[in-house]
Amino acid sequence: MYLYNEILDENVFGHTKKVVLFREAIERVRSSKASGLLHILDIGCGSGYAVTRFLAKGQDKILGVDMFPPNIEYANSKFSDDNLTFSCIDARELLLDKKEFDVIVLADILEHLSSPQDILDTAMDLLAPNGRVVITVPNGKGPFEIESAISKAPWLGPALIRVTDLIVSFLDKYIVKKAWTSYANRTPKDLPYNIDNGHVQFFAKSEIIDIIKKSGLEIDTMRNLSFLSGPFTNYFFAPSKRFCKWNTDVADVLPHWLASAWYFECYKVKDRA
Question: Is-contact 236 259, C-beta < 8 A?
Fold first, then answer.
């Protein structure tokens, strides 16, 4: 079920900004297609809840693939229809059918892979002429990864999480009543999450650019997604729409090294030759 005319509220991670940037890239590709119909692939689509179901419109064909079975089971039960499908396969299997896609989405997936170069090479091989690969990835040295590392530090991490929980519980009960409770209730309780598939890559800007270019892709656009994010920022500020908007807006004027995550829009080098 497409939800192109809807979108989730922004969060501290810039997830809604990410979807908007993906849509803008998709429309740029659409403008070069005579039929206007696009084939879109979302590699590592998860449950389809946050990104996949918001991307396509009209008669676009979109396929989400993910290797975690509960994700695909959830996506198929909630969102699939004739034009929006989900499959629990390795994206490399699509090469056997000589598939091509006009837009390929890699949303927050490369940091989870032991060999991110392989999936970028696969995306390159699956990309149709004049198509786009759109990528989001955390800044491996940015605020998000720093907060995450602190939250996992022995003794300090659990202590800070406990203090944060106490402060938020007090605020939710006495100051901004039920703000955090209401926010938590927006996310479906049955939404699957692969807790065993954490980050194994912590890219510097030069590193992620290098592996993108090694695959035969060239970067057309790079953008910052958000400034502050991570478990503590999310816990304190998730209910605040004003903070979330400021957090994504200010990221646009910050140097790349200060962003929590980056967006890349890429094309085949030979398309511009």
Answer: no
